[in-house]
Amino acid sequence: MRKLTAAFLAFLLFLSLLVPALAEESTLLEKNAGKLQIYCINLKPVQVGAGSHGDCSLIVFPTGETMLVDSSRPEYALTILNWLRELGVTKLDYFWASHYHIDHVGSIQLLADFIPVENYLGPQFDIAYQSPDYQHFLQMKKIDEQRMREGDTLDIGDVHIEVLYPYQELQDVCDQALIDQVYNIPLPAYPEMTEEAYKHQKDNYCVKQGEMGNVFCTTFKLSYKNFSMLFTGDIHMESEQYLLDHYTADELYSTVLKVPHHFVDTSCMPAFIDTVEPWISVALGDGRWNSWGQKAIRELVMLDLVTGLDGNIEFVTDGEVLDVTYGIDERVTETIDGF
After folding, report:
1. pTM for the model
2. Which helix (H) or strand (E) holds 93?
3. Of the residues 76, 94, 157, 296, which has the fewest C-beta atoms closer than 10 A?
4. Where are the domains of the chain?
């Protein structure tokens, strides 16, 4: 019995020595406290063209508050949960749903079982949002919700967020007439896409393959001192054209561009990339490139990153200097200033 007690006490002593050692290992959130931090997760390294695994990014504000922007698919909930815990996240002050496709909101209900979510932000109008499933989830978890549209703003400390899209008229009704109206716009001016190709995309891709949720997708610009980032969700080229028509180049200019729609061929008009004029672009997904977007990004952007090719991507800034860390086998950090 005495031997057992001695062994137990030795074990407790070992734990008492171990715990402080573990406590000394700071998480990334702690190491970068007081700065704006943005993390984009690579959910699974895949071959180019193998398919998107959705969007999921974490914003940590200088105040320490956190915002998860989208949550990818349900099957990645455990991966995302472990990633958040490794970063040091114990609660989500905000969850921002760009739109209600499963590859953007698929994990949030599972994540909310393990990490408290206080505020739920989503597009002003989306058919899926009205489903009993979402409403029951919000009520059961006692999560405050707010629907976002053009002109809405959110200030968290010195960080300013402004919603640029979707516009009110787009959300008044949702019927076939609206669908026709949304896509009945002048053909965007880029030579690589013919009017016939545009019509094919409109008739067969956007409407028939369930892409209407992307039409209502929120686009917001985050600004912190000299740094800015444009979050575009899955907007298509017609939404890009709206932004070009209704905002100045200064209003769209961003240090970092979250590439629309996983870089598939619905988005990334050269005119849009040229106007946003990002220093860095980051695409969340497997790295598929579309013909006109690829050329525009490579010609106009200093550093183009894709989670499926470059691993987890980290942006840390004091608003004047930006550290960008990426890489799968070997992590690289680049420091950028003067933006």
Report:
1. 0.82
2. none
3. 157
4. 27-337
Place of tokens 């890009």: 240
Selection from 147, 146, 128 nearest residue 211 by Cα: 128
What would the two tokens of residue 324 be? 């960008």
**CATH number belonging to the domain at 27-337, selected among 3.10.20.30, 1.10.10.10, 3.60.15.10, 3.40.50.300:** 3.60.15.10
- Minimal CA–CA distance to 182: which of 169, 197, 163, 195? 169
Phi and psi for 25 in degrees, rounded to 5?
-80, 100
Q: Which amino acid is at 297?
A: I
Query: Dihedral sign, CA of 304, 307, 309, 312?
Result: positive
Question: What residues have CB less than 8 Å from 272, skipping those under 6 apart?
Answer: 237, 240, 241, 243, 244
pLDDT values of the chain reduced to their tens digit, one per residue, 339 residues:
444 444 544 444 444 444 444 445 789 999 999 999 999 999 874 434 434 578 999 999 999 999 999 999 888 999 999 999 999 999 999 999 998 888 888 899 999 999 999 999 988 765 555 556 677 788 888 999 898 889 999 999 999 999 999 877 665 544 444 444 444 444 444 344 455 544 544 444 444 345 567 777 899 999 999 999 999 999 888 889 889 999 999 999 999 999 998 877 778 888 899 999 999 999 988 766 666 666 778 788 889 998 988 999 999 999 999 999 999 999 999 999 988
β-bridge mates for residue 257, sequence order: 230, 281
3-state secondary structure 204-250: HHHCCCCCHHHHCCCEEEEEECCEEEEECCCCCHHHHHHHHHHCCHH
When computed from its CA atoms, the radius of gyration of the chain, rounded to whole angstroms, is: 22
Strand partners, 283: 306
Contact predicate 321/337, CB 8 Å: yes
How many C-beta neighbours within 10 Å does residue 327 have?
A: 14
